[in-house]
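Folded chain entry
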Amino acid sequence: MTRAKNKRKAGILLKTVLALNLFFILLLILSYITPYVKVERWGWLTLLALTYPFVMMLNGCFAVAWLLNKRWYAIFSIITILAGMGVHGRYFKLFSLPAKTACPETIRVLSYNLRGMSMVPVEKGASAERRIESLYTALNEAKEFPDIFCIQEGSKGDYIGDQFGLKNVIHGSKSTLWILSRFPIVHQGELMGEENNPFCIWADIKTDQGMLRVYNMHLMSNRVTNTTEELIQDMDFQKENTWNSIRFIMSRYRFTTKLRSKEAALLHNHIQSCTYPALITGDANDTPISHTYRVLAEGLKDSFRERGSGFSTTYDSTLPLLRIDYLLGTSQIQFKDHITHHLSYSDHYPISSGICIKKEPGS
């Protein structure tokens, strides 16, 4: 009697675990298709892009657990994980093959969201100039010497340019966007967003390898970071505040996803009309399996996918593997490497790459 009862309990437990496994398999499949959903109608579904690393790791754990217990159910998670190999490479790569650059000396490009330099580790009450000097020292020690420096949420770009020896500087009107260059800037412009300020600035730069257009973007922010962090640390589904926070995050994320998709489409259309090799840099505020990334990166190379290795994280958060900062190039751009500098000078990490501008046949 006891043995039959225990067997029945074991059967119920097995079915419960299998049901949970199937639920997380469904979530993983949905996260794969989030870039293709219509954000106007299914914007809330894009939240799954934020949970993708967690859901993927859970499926891995289920697969291992089933294998250890010699259960064939492991095949469900294994097949689902293998089906998303193209997605996983946007977040993590074991290695990248060495690049055969098309030029003897690359152009070094650095992109960094400075968060107003509020997190720079200096003495209390330090001036903006002192913070910039500290930033210069940190990047110097990391052996990062950019030829082109694209800044989001920055100030005093002229002083930053002086520190880095980048004398050609442009600044977006009513914005915190800057492009600093060692090379002459021939033309410049802005792309306007919904909030009467540019979400992107661009510069046509006359480099030693030819003309290069550089875009520096900062797409619409979710502005839910604090709420999300508080929710993760104190999640109690019996409290009304928890559900209010969840509703706020879902509503806000759906709204901002729509706006980012519009901005991404405007930027993508603008780059299509450019006759020069072009590079998109900056903070997209969306992950590599978002609709925003799909629109932005269509037909472009991604520096991490081309030359990165390890984890791609660019944003310091409780949520794992948040990558929202990018370097994307047209077909003429060749990335030599991709480096993420893990500095504690902002909630973002600076990313950089050495690039070559390939000559088109007959040019």
In short: The mean pLDDT is 88. DSSP finds eleven helices and 15 strands in the chain.
